[in-house]
Amino acid sequence: TYVVTENCIGCKYTDCVEVCPVDCFYEGENTLVIHPDECIDCGVCEPECPADAIRPDTEPGMEQWVEFNRKFSEQWPVIVTKKDPLPEAEERDGEEGKMEKYFS
Ligand code: SF4
Ligand code: F3S
Questions:
Q1: Which of 35, 44, 38, 39 lies closest to 16 in space, CA to CA?
Q2: Which atom number of ligand 1 is nearest to the Cα of residue 54?
Q3: Which ligand is nearest to the CA of 82?
Q4: 17 pocket-lining for ligand 1 (C-beta < 6 Å)
Q5: Could you read off the pLDDT of 5-53 as tens digits, one per residue?
Q6: What number is the ipTM of this complex?
Q7: What share of the chain is helix, strand, coil (3-state, %, to 5)?
Q8: Non-local CB neighbours of 100 within 8 Å, separated by 6+ positions
Q9: Which ligand 2 atom minimizes the distance to the CA of 52?
């Protein structure tokens, strides 16, 4: 499965949702997540993200993101249409510590 990782937080460009063939992106206030049981591992969303936030879960260090994506995909509503990025997306892109800042 693919997972949305930290750099989506505070940016939420949403280009990813337009290309997903199974509509498995879910939307929170500050980030999106992928439902790991619905993702068919096609990989088409990965290059679409301007913030480079989508990764295969086979990369090292992805465990916390698999857990994060699973948890919130079961709580947040599905998103299938692109919308405007968050107002501070450009500023937040690449910023460190966004997980702590937004989710603690
Ligand atoms: Fe959707 Fe494919 Fe991305 Fe999985 S890898 S979230 S199925 S576009
Ligand atoms: Fe987030 Fe990238 Fe999609 S910033 S909303 S994963 S296009």
A1: 44
A2: 3
A3: 2
A4: no
A5: 999 999 999 999 999 999 999 999 999 999 999 999 999 999 999 999 9
A6: 0.98
A7: 30, 10, 60
A8: none
A9: 2
